[in-house]
Design brief:
This protein is α+β, with helices and mostly antiparallel strands. It has helices at residues 14-24, 47-56, and strands at residues 2-7, 29-32, 39-42, 61-66. The chain has a single domain (2-69), classed as Alpha-Beta Plaits (2-Layer Sandwich). A hairpin with a 6-residue loop joins strand 2 and strand 3.
């Protein structure tokens, strides 16, 4: 699932966040949207699990918004 995340801090350490999310999902991908500074995360966890994982490493989110699926269906047969 893809999420857009607003954190309580403006300058997150993406390495720390990526490591934390990859503990739960080794394929997790995290980056920062240069337009508005929000995080974009693609992970196999629900919003509450994501919220808790971020808070545990010191980055409590203000908003965790699940994005609409953009899956083409090709990889799942």
């Amino acid at each position: 699932m893809e999420y857009r995340i607003r954190l309580a801090t403006d300058v997150p350490d993406l390495a720390v966040i990526t490591d934390a999310l990859q503990q739960a999902d080794p394929a997790a991908i995290v980056d920062r949207d240069p337009r508005d500074g929000s995080l974009r995360a693609t992970v196999w966890m629900d919003g509450e699990e994501l919220r808790l994982a971020l808070a545990q490493v010191g980055y409590p989110p203000i908003v965790v918004e699940q994005q609409a699926s953009n899956c083409c269906g090709e990889c799942s047969g």
